[in-house]
Amino acid sequence: MENENIIVVKSKAFAIRIVRMYKHLKITKREYILSQQVLRSGTSIGANVHEAIQAQSKADFKAKMYIALKEASETEYWLELLRDTDYLKPKEAESILTDCIELIKLLTKITKTVKENS
Description:
Layout: H1 6-28, H2 33-53, H3 58-84, H4 90-116
Helix pairs in contact: 1-2, 1-4, 2-3, 3-4
C-alpha cells in the first residue's frame, strides 16, 4: 500500500464519492441534469490519471494530467453550483469540495513539475 501512487488512490476515492453523490441526488432530490454533469467530470479525473500512468511518452503523460486537472476544475464548478442551488447541503458540499480542491492542488503540482522537467 505504501508504494501506491497518491493521485491514483485519491482520484479513485473521489470518483466513488461522486458516484454515490450522483445516486443520492437522482433518488432523493430528483435532480438529473447537474448531477449527470458532475458524474461525468468527477469520474473523468481518475480515468485520465489512470491513463496517464500508462502513458507512452512524457508528452502523453503531461496531456492526460492536464485533462485531469481541467476535469477537476470543471467538477469544482458543478459542485459549487449544486451547493448554491441547494441540491447539496453546505456541509455535504464542503466535504466533497475539499477533496476536489485537494485533487486540483495535486494535479497542479504534477503538471507544473512535468512542465519544468520538459
